[in-house]
Amino acid sequence: MSYLGDTIAALATPAGTSAIAVVRASGLHAADLVRAVFGATPPPRLAQHADYRDRSGALVDDVLFTFFAGPNSFTGEDTVEISCHGNPFIAQKILEDLLARGCRPAEAGEFSKRAFLNGRMDLSQAEAVMDLIHARSERALAAANQQLRGALGRQVNQLIELLVNILATIEAYVDFPDEDLPPEDLDKVQRQLDELLAGANRLLATNRYGELLREGIKTVILGEPNAGKSSLLNRLVGRERALVSPEPGTTRDYLEERVVIGSHWLRLVDTAGLNPSAASLEKRGIDKTFEQAAEADLFLWVIDSTRPLPGLPETLAARMTPANTIAVFNKLDLPPAPKGDLPKAFPLVHVSALQGAGLEALQAAVTKLAESFHVEIGDELIAVNARHSLALDQAKAALLEAKQKLAAQEPSDLAASDLRAALDAFGQISGKIDNETILDRLFASFCIGK
Predict the structure, then answer these.
(1) For residue 341, what pLDDT is reported?
(2) How confident is the prediction for the chain on average, in pLDDT?
(3) If I label 13, which of 264, 362, 369, 414 is the partner at 20 to 30 A Cα–Cα?
(4) Strands 79-86 and 104-105, how do they pair?
């Protein structure tokens, strides 16, 4: 049964010309709509071929429609999906006819919001719908699919279950204030709180990887002028994105391109060459190199193999480690110059950006480093987002407060209050709270028709 009384309708496919378009309606009167337009309600989940005629009887299009009976539908309500030819005019005519028959236009994210309100998914699963739509790599797609299937919800529910048991123990002493918490019970509660904190920390540790999956791994290509940085960018992107010239210092500003390497999505940033004696305009470009490097997740340090090994500015050297940097010795096709040792044990690859040699080895090295950013939590791929992280931080703070109060033998009801605050914070992740403001803000970021 829906929590909402009206029936909503919207395009479920992007605007524009295509082979097909889908118009979706959901709510209490969806079955009545199907009967009014097509004459009868077919068996659920069985696609039907029919003419779509508007209220005046005029033929609009030759369509396929599928009826989904609640609660066994995406929204948990009676739903109809109408597939028409992908002419925007046709799709709009069908949508306008549905609105004329009593539907109202769906708000952004309202179909997913109804699925949440009707218990078809928790809040973390609803967020995964958007992650699934916007996934740009295999890893991002895998993480979104696992979250959509409840991976994060299961992890959080385990923490909630343990916390509820602890809270029940503590509140028993609140109900019977003449009794003190026995030392053996206090030790057990403290161990359980440590277990909870460790679980929260494990989930929090996946936040950075979640950002990388959703935003892309910011990969800064840097090195001396004329080392081949722009040529390498062009090779990785697969087209001539950056101008290449034998003249050093050609790149005066940074260029950014997005590319999938292995199973990850990268934001490649080509930067101005690191020239310690640069003129003013070139120096401004180098300043931007430092700005981009300060936000980098991964570095490709391009080194001209025909020249002596260059040094690194101190600020860059402090940020670059074997865990986030690959030394790319370029110009493999030319005779090498003698080299000293690298300043750190960076993974290294030899390439020829001009000829494309060594590119597969570089891609494999990038993939290996990108994989190392992933934090393992059992067999499930978890990647929390900023909202989840905030809730986990709040839960941690409350749990630590409870630990301190119990250790100081303060009244049990004070510790119980902190534990209830932690419970509320965990509940924000799955949405097991009554907070209309949070829900409206979350689902407003969805597209119309989802």
Answers:
(1) 84
(2) 88
(3) 264
(4) unpaired
